[in-house]
Amino acid sequence: MNSSCVRFVILGMAMVLAACSGQGEHADLKLKMEEIKRRPQGRIEPPPEFETYKNFSYSASLLRSPFQPPVAVEPMKAMVKGKRVMPDFDRPKELLEEFSIDALTMVGTLSRPGNKLFSLIRDNKAGIHRVSIGNYMGRNHGRVVEITDIKIDVVELIPDGEEGWVERPRAIVLKIE
Asked: pTM score, two decimals?
């Protein structure tokens, strides 16, 4: 190999090495980084203060659900066989009278010898109660008048708006889950 070829190869290698060094390629990036480092350091703002969460107490859970249709009140006789219909305010309240009729669910029946039938009622607090004819339930002085295998018939006493009371029949149907 002659000396001109060797010089040509050495010159080519020098050019390749000079191209790979990359000092001229990233010089502007290095200058920008140095400029950023020289700037005065800023202060990060603290995060905003958040209000503490206030629990909401839903107090209408024992009332009729707004998604159920309202119960139609049909005027009935305010007098039954010459007697004025009126709730007995002197009797002690029963446990199921603190719940709305809509919050009570019939879940089954029990029978005893002598054909006495009891109904099992679940309230909206997951309590199960035994009910028989004559027991009271619901907020409107509802009295159980009949129990069958599939439903309970209740007669409620509601104010008629004229200082009197009217009877309103209601039924709680067996709910199978």
From this structure: 0.53
